[in-house]
Design goal:
With about 190 residues, the protein is of the alpha+beta class. The chain has six helices and five strands, in the order αβααβαβββαα. The N and C termini lie far apart (about 50 Å). The relative contact order is 0.14. The structure holds ligand 0O2.
């Protein structure tokens, strides 16, 4: 069922990419990846939420067991992808967390959606929740490195401050690249 939900969403995102890319004459989604949450990450999250660490509790309470990541070149294109996702009648958007407009304290930026995807199996129709993380190439660069080096590690003030500073530098660069793109498009 997880694979079916991933396949359905990937197909839709590829369609959205074709549509937007045709309009703009360049790719609007640079990368789509997916992951199924690891057992260790499920366990830690259930404990953090003070829930029983078992499979049924996870199924019932965690909406990010299936995750899809969409990386776009530019920030405004993230919102264009979301607008087209909203037009997909069978995809229900349950929750939006905009860490681009309102970054996390550590500097993390991405747009998170929890969506529900209909799956038709032998047991009848089911709805599968999926977390979609949308970010720019630059946000992805920061997030991937921060995740590998520091995320979930014990707090170190100096490192945290440096990471936050770089996240802000990256956000400024994203803004400059967007302005430059607009300038080039007018030439
Ligand atoms: P993993 O290893 O990816 O599974 P909630 O579900 O709303 O109760 P949660 O899960 O903290 O609370 O939601 P949030 O903040 O939207 O984070 C969901 C996911 O976004 C995280 O999943 C990470 O994948 C990513 N993420 C969130 N904050 C950060 C961050 O500061 N740095 C990086 N690199 N990624 C982040 P998990 O379950 O924490 O981890």
């Amino acid at each position: 069922r997880c694979k079916a939900a991933i396949d359905i969403l990937q197909a839709k995102l590829k369609m959205i990419n074709s549509e937007l890319s045709r309009q703009k004459n360049r790719s609007v989604i640079s990368q789509i990846t997916s992951r199924i949450k690891s057992a260790e990450s499920i366990y830690t999250k259930l404990l953090r939420k003070k829930l029983e660490p078992d499979f049924d509790t996870a199924k019932k309470n965690l909406k990010d067991l299936i995750g899809i990541r969409v990386v776009c070149p530019f920030e405004d294109e993230i919102y264009e992808v979301v607008e087209l996702l909203k037009l997909q009648k069978d995809i229900e958007i349950l929750k939006v967390k905009d860490y681009i407009k309102d970054p996390k304290k550590n500097g993390y930026r991405s747009l998170h959606l929890i969506v529900q995807v209909p799956i038709y199996s032998a047991d009848g129709p089911q709805k599968e929740p999926v977390e979609i993380q949308l970010r720019t190439l630059a946000m992805d660069y920061w997030s991937v490195l921060e995740y590998q080096l520091y995320y979930k590690k014990s707090e170190n003030e100096e490192v945290a401050a440096e990471l936050k500073e770089y996240a802000e530098e990256i956000a400024r660069l994203d803004g400059k690249m967007l302005k430059l793109r607009n300038k080039i498009e007018k030439i």
